[in-house]
Amino acid sequence: MFQPMLGLKGSSARIQIDDRLQHQPSVYEFFTAASDFTPDGYRRLYDAVQYVQSKGIKHIVLHHPMKFHDYHSEVVAPEKDYPDLYRFIETTTEQLIRLGHDLNVQILVHGGYSGPEVQHMVDLYPTVEDARQAVYQRLDRFANEGGQQIMFENSIAPVFAYGHPDQEDEILTHHYRLAFDTSHCFIELHGDNAGLQRSLKHLAPAVVHYHLVDSMGQTHDSLQLGSGKIDWAGVLPLLNPQATSIYEINLHNQTNCREQLASHDYLLKVYHQLQSKKG
Known about the structure:
Layout: E1 7-10, H1 14-21, E2 27-31, H2 39-54, E3 59-63, E4 67-68, E5 71-72, H3 83-103, E6 106-110, H4 116-122, H5 128-146, E7 150-153, H6 165-173, E8 178-181, H7 182-188, H8 193-203, E9 207-212, H9 232-235, E10 244-247, H10 258-278
Parallel strand pairs: 1-2, 2-3, 3-6, 6-7, 7-8, 8-9, 9-10
Antiparallel strand pairs: 4-5
């Protein structure tokens, strides 16, 4: 069974890194921003990755920047309608892949986000299926360039969502290395724990990284584990034991990761309860 590991998330700011590293995590995931991809910002990010590595952290993930100006980094955005956003995604993904190869770290790119914005972009295509194929074509190219350094995360959008067996089957035909956000799937399924568990089991062999997040199953709420409606005792046995994970939880204070630590404590209790039942 998957054994909970301490995976923490923060920015490239030293104050956040040091806050996380004092707890000796197994995994550190960088939440990057557009400012990390200016010439100076990229050098700082590169140095920050090496700093984390110097502290003995072997598993490092770089999360592609979530936003560009007023837009989410939606890979479905057509180049002709969103040229600046399209180019931003291209150049930042290229920079991250280069950094991933140079320093042997992992890169995470979202297959999509959520909300009216992405729906408007999908509506620019003749059909949802056309939009989905455009996303696959772009991810195929990124996967070819990134190799074993890149993974793709599920969205709450029609173009790259987990929770629907037919879509999952299609995703699996592309042989992507997958990142699985539990809350995104749970929200996509409107709070259906059985559906979440089916998806986790179906995709587990392809998943290399998890975002362990609780949710009420209706909106993107990023809750501490145990404070939402996800059945963690049902989730834990279905996770790929070879994958890494982090707790991607909303923090009251970005310089104090206590909600992530509390999530880890909660999952460890669930793990020990399951182990005692087996014994």
